[in-house]
Each structure stands twice: as C-alpha cells, then as structure tokens.
Amino acid sequence: MPFLKPDRYFSRLSKVDIDRDLLALGYRNVFLDVDNTILTRDTHEVPRDVGLWLGQARDAGISFCLVSNNWHEGVYHLAQRLSLPIVAKAVKPLPPAFMIALSKLGAKRAETVVIGDQLVTDVLGAHFMGMKAYLLAPLVEQDLPHTLMLRNFERLVMGDRKPEGAVTPSASTAHPAGKTNGSHVQTNIESANKEG
C-alpha cells in the first residue's frame, strides 16, 4: 500500500523543521489539514507551539492553504483569523480540492507538501496528486466516530513506525507569545481561541 505510506511522520507540526524539512527540499507551499492537525478536537484550540510554528514558517516564506473536509463555520472563522486561504468541504482524498488549493496559491505540485493527521484523507490525497505527504500524530485522542474506526486501520498500516520528534509536557507553553518571529500570528490565534 505505497499510496498510504507517508513520506515523513512527525509527532506534531512544530517538530517539522522549517529549513531542513521544507525549504531545503524545495517546499514553498503547505496544504494543511485543520482538525487534530492544528486545531484540537476536544477544546477546539490551536496549541501555542503550533501557532508559533505557523508564524515562523510564514516569516520564512512558506505559503499555506487550509484543506479541510470540515464544513462548519468554525473552520472558516479560523482561516479568517489566521489570514489563510481555505478549501473546506474538501472531500479528501479526492483530487478537486487539492487542485483548487494549488490554484489559490499559484503553486506547483513539486513545491508543495500536504500535512495532516490521517492516512486515508491527507496522505492518500497527496499521493493521488503526485505530491509528498507528511503525517502527524493527532493532537488529541478524541475524534469523530468514523475517524476512530480508521485509526485502527492506520495502526495496521504504520506498524511500529514511530513519529519523529518527542512530545514533551511543556511543548504547548515553551515559547511565550511575542518572544519569537511570527508572534503576530500567535496573537491572532489566541484571539480566535478566546472567541471560538
């Protein structure tokens, strides 16, 4: 099942090294899943380390488009607060949403990587399009019922493969907002968390 094998596997988004894992490999564009990738399923918040990483990546010249199968108002609100384009109701892994995202960014497939927490939507969809895919461990264990069923299948596919980057208890509070590049993005995220 090569189409279901992620090109890389990380414990969370902030463990993706912007220079080494993106820019050095020619990736200038990232299609980013939302639920349990950058937004926790249980509290519907963007963890601080994830928000800071997004800001740092944008400061480094990375362009983002959110690509989500979700269609609720919250994903549009998040995209607005982050000032990011979004393709919602994406029906991943089918190609049309990825084609729309490429058009929104004016991006080339070879310069784009898909990052998300599911094999059957994010990874498979990326590989259908001939793009690379980075799988993330979900932010929290809480998921929709049908997603929980798919997690068992994912465990079979991944076997004993471990994600890159250790998750530490202080990961979500390691960098105070405003102390690193991208703090303006973190401020927007904190506002969205309070309002959403």
TrEMBL record:
Residues 162-196 are annotated as: Disordered. Residues 180-196 have a biased composition (Polar residues). Coiled coil: none annotated. GO terms for molecular function: phosphatidylglycerophosphatase activity. InterPro entries: HAD-like_sf, HAD_sf, PGPP1/Gep4. SUPFAM superfamilies: HAD-like. This is YqeG family HAD IIIA-type phosphatase.
